[in-house]
């Protein structure tokens, strides 16, 4: 296979960044190199001043450099975590704005998108952030479209929520750069059962969105979630919490910005999408399980909400390729070894060869 240009990624670590999000972003790059048998990606870490920095779980990390002396990168990803508002400095904002003029891709993971928004680098863009910060970002940055999606790729801005969501984003990027077979094989190596995409939303606790001031609304949504197969009439829902139908509709419009029937439909369609992607259940049976009176009605609602019919959604998930593992003789290599050199000792090194042209 002909050599490919190496994509360099710089991870900017902020104080109290979440370690799981960083690992979820880095590990797919390592595995891409291992499975392809060549160095497709190279990555570095930097802190603001180059000094050791602590993750939110107390693990200290020694970065490769300070941001001012970091090597040139194709992508710069800001890794945020807890207390993100206290980590933004004028120096960091100035440096990020400079990077925006030169980096091909600029992004953030977990709460890193808050920093980009503070620097004015997400104005006019859509972005993702951990659900704890959704409301705060919407309030603080009205020129930014904040999405509840697990991750968002908007032109040259790459943002993801926390936890394992950065892995989904990186798998998507690897697939775009080098083909689905490689990203699918990486997913298999990490025992990652399903690669999620930009249409997958974070599961945001309703009590977090509403606080403790709307117990009746929380109770109604709980009833809806428990009755997806046989949806309850809105009049019955209102009676359960001692409200009129009109009061119920006003409450949904005020706090959830939609009608109760629309919210109920959304819950059923999201459940249908999960079943469609994760089970072999037929579309006919799936429609009944999610409270639709007929398959055509289900297909129409599904297409209107997700933009594709359910049949196409299922066909869009290709079967995972079976990767043939070559036999590699392992020889002792003097320490220290680079990450790529260490990968060469693994049985799966070079096992994915049919990369995107």
Automatic annotation (TrEMBL):
Where's the HTH araC/xylS-type domain? Answer: 218-316
Supply the SUPFAM superfamilies for this chain. Answer: Class I glutamine amidotransferase-like, Homeodomain-like
Has the keyword Transcription been applied to this entry?
yes
Q: Which Pfam families match?
A: DJ-1_PfpI, HTH_18
The record's annotation in InterPro entries points to: Class_I_gatase-like, DJ-1/PfpI, Homeodomain-like_sf, HTH_AraC, HTH_AraC-typ_CS, INH-QAR, Tscrpt_reg_AraC-type_HTH
rRNA processing: is it a keyword of this entry?
Answer: no
Keyword field: DNA-binding, Transcription, Transcription regulation
Q: Which domain of life is it from?
A: Bacteria
Q: PANTHER family of this UniProt entry?
A: ARAC-FAMILY TRANSCRIPTIONAL REGULATOR, HTH-TYPE TRANSCRIPTIONAL REGULATOR RV1931C
- This chain belongs to which protein, by name? GlxA family transcriptional regulator
Q: Source species, please?
A: Pseudomonas quebecensis
């Amino acid at each position: 296979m002909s050599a490919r240009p190496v994509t360099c990624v710089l991870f900017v670590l902020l104080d109290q960044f979440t370690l799981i999000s960083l690992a979820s972003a880095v590990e797919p790059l390592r595995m891409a190199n291992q499975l392809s048998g060549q160095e497709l990606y190279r990555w570095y870490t930097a802190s603001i001043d180059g000094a050791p920095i602590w993750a939110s779980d107390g693990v200290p990390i020694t970065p490769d450099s300070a941001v001012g002396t970091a090597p040139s990168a194709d992508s710069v990803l800001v890794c945020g975590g807890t207390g993100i508002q206290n980590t933004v400095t004028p120096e960091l904002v100035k440096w990020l704005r400079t990077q925006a003029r030169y980096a091909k891709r600029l992004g953030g993971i977990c709460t890193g998108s808050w920093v980009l928004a503070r620097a004015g680098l997400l104005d006019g863009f859509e972005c993702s952030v951990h659900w704890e910060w959704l409301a705060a970002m919407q309030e603080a940055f009205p020129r930014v479209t904040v999405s509840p999606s697990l991750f968002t790729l908007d032109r040259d801005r790459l943002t993801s929520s926390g936890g394992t969501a950065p892995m989904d984003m990186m798998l998507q990027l690897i697939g775009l750069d080098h083909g689905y077979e490689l990203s699918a094989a990486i997913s298999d190596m990490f025992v990652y059962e399903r690669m999620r995409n930009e249409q997958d939303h974070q599961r945001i606790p309703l009590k977090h969105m509403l606080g403790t001031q709307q117990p009746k609304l929380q109770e109604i949504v709980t009833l809806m979630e428990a009755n997806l197969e046989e949806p309850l009439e809105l009049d019955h829902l209102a009676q359960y919490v001692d409200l009129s139908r009109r009061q119920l509709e006003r409450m949904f419009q005020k706090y959830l910005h939609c009608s109760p029937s629309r919210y109920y439909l959304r819950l059923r369609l999201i459940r249908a999408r999960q079943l469609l992607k994760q089970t072999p259940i037929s579309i006919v049976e799936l429609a009944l399980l999610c409270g639709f009176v007929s398959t055509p009605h289900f297909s129409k609602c599904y297409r209107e909400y997700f933009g594709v019919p359910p049949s196409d959604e299922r066909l869009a998930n290709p079967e995972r390729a079976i990767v043939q593992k070559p036999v590699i003789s392992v020889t002792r290599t003097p320490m220290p070894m680079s990450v790529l050199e260490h990968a060469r000792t693994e049985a799966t090194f070079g096992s994915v060869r049919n990369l995107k042209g």
